[in-house]
Each structure stands twice: as structure tokens, then as C-alpha cells.
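Structure ticket #2291
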Amino acid sequence: MDYRKLFAEIHRRPKMYGLDGSYRDYCTYLLGIDAGNDGRLLKGFTELLVPRVGAGNNLPWVSLVLHLAFPDLTSGWRDEAAGEGKQAAVDLLFSLLDEFFDKRDAPRGTAAIFDDYLTWLKVQPARTCQRKNHSRARAAVPACDRGGTLPGRRTRERPRDQQQRRDQVPAAALPLLR
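Resolution: structure written out below.
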């Protein structure tokens, strides 16, 4: 199936596909098509957008497009996409998709997208876990460095047989199991 033609048709005539023309509906439809292709159709789309935004490698492409559509906003992107900026967000989404398919279909296209993303990622400052002062004895060492979890995060308790197997592992191998 030629998805470029399908996306152009969806953009041109959304009601024919049961969409109301909102950014949210387009994204939902595109995510469904991507899921129907085992996530391979839009693989690399997020990685294409992250270096452009300059941040947000923890965000999905849906949010990154909004960051690009409304660069002056620090919050309220979804409200803007649902209101006056709806058409701008939708038009940007489809132009970015066209550009993505152009890059991806080029020789070594997907590899080039991921290479650009990894190059961007390597120059980003390293992030460390939060340092919280929960007890004086442990204040100097963050929870993630102690092998624990950060405050407020749930931990999954291990079944007794897994814990017993872990106790039988030589002490030298314990750091590898964390």
C-alpha cells in the first residue's frame, strides 16, 4: 500500500475517513495505521524530530510536532492544536511526514535518520538521577546509585524463589544483576 498517497488523501479529505480534521484525530488515525504495521511504518519519525526540537527524546512524535508547530509556547500545545492553531499543526504534521518518507526512502535513509539522532544525543549533557535528601546517612549518594529506586516509584518485589536464586549468585556478579 502506498501510504504517502493515503496520507495525502486523508489530509485533503478527512471526513471521507471518519475524521473531523482535528490534530488529535489525525494522530490517532496515524498511530493506528502504524500499529497495524507493527510500528515499522513510522519507525524513525520521532528520531527525525528530536534534533529539530532540540529536546524531548522522551516524548512521542505527537508531542514533538506540537513543539515545532508552536515554538513560543511553554505549555498548552494541545489546547492550541485544538483551537486556532489546528490547521497549522495539521499542515506541519503532514509536511513532516512527507519529509520523513523522503528521507527514509533514500538509500540508507533510516540509518541516516538514526545516525543524525545519535549524533545529536551524544552532544547532550549527561543526565543524572535526582538527588534527594531523605536521610543524612544517604544524602550524598542518590537512590539510583545505591541500587534503590527514586522516592515515589514503586518497586516490584521478587518472588521468593528468584530471591533465593539471587542469594546463591557469587558476590562479584551482583552488580551485573542490577
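Closing remark: Confidence is low (pLDDT under 50) at residues 133-151.
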